[in-house]
Amino acid sequence: MRIASNWEDYALLDCAGGERLExxxxxxxxxxxxQVIWHGRAHPLWVKAHARYIRSGSGGGQWETLRxxxxxxxxGYGALRFGLKPMGFKHTGLFPEQAVNWDMLGDYxxxxxxxxxERELRVLNLFAYTGGATLACxxxxxxxxxxxxxxxxxxxxxxxxxxxGLAERPVRWITEDCxxxxxxxxxxxxxxxxxxxxxxxxxxGPGGEVWKLTEEIDGFIALCGELLHxxxxxxxxxxxxxxxxxVMQYLLGKVLVPALGGTxxxxxxxxxxxxxxxxxxxxxxxxxxxAK
Length: 292
Fold this sequence. Notes:
The chain is built from 7 helices and 17 strands. The protein has helices at 99-115, 132-140, 151-163, 178-188, 213-225, 245-255, 257-260; strands at residues 2-3, 10-16, 19-24, 27-32, 51-55, 61-65, 73-77, 80-84, 122-126, 143-148, 171-175, 192-197, 202-204, 210-212, 228-238, 263-273, 278-289. Helix 1 packs parallel to helix 2.
């Protein structure tokens, strides 16, 4: 498992009874996590949380405020800054475990820039949410195209770029259905050095387009392959229980390797739990890397 272990403003304090206890800056939140099937709460801050997300029996849920807290606040990861707030379906606007991928992407881009300083690395970030990976790539020196179907998420990503002092870096902010955007880029003959995919299990585009991960992802990766340079990189994230790391590795190997060569790797990503000193799995990443 690859662990996001460089956080200072975030900590997974404890997890038990189907919930996580997390510190976001100075704000303590309790959020549901169905994989946490064990019991025994070991951290004193369970009784001092500022808010708790309560799931509804009919789907969805709502935040319950337990103590006075700001409506919005900021945290940092290195030089990057992110605005947070309690959002729908237990979210805050950031997935802290993804920091392990931000670090990997930053190191990869800096290495490529050092080896080929004349080449401008172009990154396509699809289902890009509030821009954690976009900011990491911009900071490392790449040109990024940030695409998400939700206008509000693209706006928050732009705000995070401004907070991080990256608003003037080379970036395109695009609100569009990701499949339609990729199809149009293929017709334009566009090419990218890095493609990032963090698709939802289920979603709808701005025009009502329906996305179901297990039905769409195979063909979607094939289309992305048409945009990739043969020496490029494609990173696929998933939080779906239907896509294990090995399944994702097989998928990329079957779709991309015959067309572009290269190799595929995979692993879980996770966070350390302060109370137990063990790692909680928080998703999976598979990476296709082209031959150099």
